[in-house]
What does this fold into?
Amino acid sequence: MELTQLSIENARSAVQERKITALALAEAHYARIQKEDGQIGAFLTLCKERALEQADRIDRMATEGKPLPPPTRGVRTTAGSKILNKYIPPFDCTAVARMEAAGAVVLGKTNCDEFAMGSSNENSAFHPVRNPRDLGRVPGGSSGGSAAAVAADMAVVALGSDTGGSIRQPASFCGVVGLMPTYGRVSRYGLIAFASSLDHIGPLAKTVKDAAIVLQAIAGRDPMDSTSADLPIPDYVAELAKPVRGLKLGVAKEYFGDGLDDEVRHTVELAIDKLKTLGCEVVPVSLPHTPYAIPTYYVIATAEASSNLARYDGVRYSYRAPGVKSMAEMYRRSRDEGFGAEVKRRIMLGTYALSAGYYDAYYLKAQKVRTLLTRDFEEAFAKVDAIVTPTSPTAAFRLGEKSNDPLAMYLADIYTVTADLAGIPGISVPCGATREKLPIGLQILGKHFDEATILRVAHAYERSAYTGS
Ligand code: GLN
It folds into this structure.
C-alpha cells in the first residue's frame, strides 16, 4: 500500500513503531499534492516548512515519548475569499490545535466556496476544485477542497465546515466519509464565521473509524467558544465495536420524493436493506416540515451572514481598495472588489430579511419554522435511534451545470440543511456508485450529542460493504 493511502490508525502505528517516519509520510503527501493538485485544485495554502518541522517533532516524540504540541497560527487563511487573500491569523483555531496536539501534521489549508457559501466549490475566489473521481465534475461544496484532498490521497484526513451540508455533501460527491457533529460538540473558535447558529466543524476521512478518531481529538468544551458544550465525551472508537443489531432506523418518505435521482434512490434503498440484514429494524417516520427547510435555511443563513460579514470593511482585515478618497468610498470599494457575487447576493438577502418592517415576516417566521423542523426530529427520535436518508438528491454534477442558477444550486442541500437547522449530528458514508462510477452517499442522522450511534451504524455498514457480510 502507498504511504498516502494509509488511514490515521495505520499511519499512527507505523510511525509509533518506527516503520516509517512522520517526515516520510508528510513528504509522500507533498509529492502526491505536487503530482495531482495541479488538476484538482484542492489546496490554497501549503505550509511545507512548518509541516516538516512538526513531523520532525513527532518523530522525536516517537523516540523520546515527550508530547510537544506546537502552535497553529501563522498560516494564511482565506475562506476562499479575495477579501482575506493575505490574512495571516494571529491566533490558533481550537480544532486544529487539538489535532496537532494529538500528533497530526497540517499540510496546508484547503480550497472552499467563498465564506463557505455554495454547494460546488465554484464560488472560490481563487479557482474551483475538481472532483478527483471525474475531473469534469464538481467535488461538492463548500468544503470541496477538503473532500477532494482526502479522496485523491493528498491528505490522510481533513477538516471542513458544515452550515447547510458542506461536510456531508462533498463527502458524498467524492466518495469519502464526512461527519457533522452536534452543534456545540466541537469548538468553532478560529473558524471563520458564516452563520453562527448553524456552523459546525467536522472531519472528512477515508474511513468511519478515522472520522471517530478525529472527533475524539477535537470534541469538547473550549472556554474560547461559549456555544461549546460541557458534556462528557464518549470513547467513539470503542463505541464502534458495539453491535447494531436491534437498533431502530427511521426512514422518512419526505427524503425520497420528487427530485431524487433514480440511481441514488435505488442505491440508498439497497444500503438500507443491507442495514436490515445486519439486524437493524427499519421504521417509517414522518418529518412533515421538511419541504420548508430550504427557504428557512436560506433566510436564517443569509441573515446571520450579513451580520457576520459586516466586519470586512477594509479597515481591520486584509483587502483594502487602493486609491480611495474617503472613508465611505473605502468601505464601498473594498467590499465591492473583495467579495464575490454569491457573497454579495447573500449579504443583500440577509440585510433585507433583517430590516425593520421585514424582520417579523422573514427572519422571525423562519425561526419559528426552524422550531417546527426541530420538533419533527424530536418526535421521530422518540421512536428510532437514527434516521437514514440519501445525502444528496444527485451524484456530482458537472462544472458549470448549476453555477448560473443559484436556486438550482440551493436545492442541492435539500437533505442536509435540516440537520444543521435542528443542531443534530449527521454522517455521510459511501454506499455505492452510479453507472458512470460517481460516488453516492448514505446519510445517517442522530439524536443531539449521539454521534456514537451514527458512527456505529456507518461503521457497521462500511464493514459489511467491504466484507460483503
Ligand atoms: N450549500 C449551502 C450554502 O450554500 C451550505 C453551505 C455550507 O454548509 N457551508 O449555504
About this structure: The chain is about 40% helix and 10% strand. The mean pLDDT is 95.
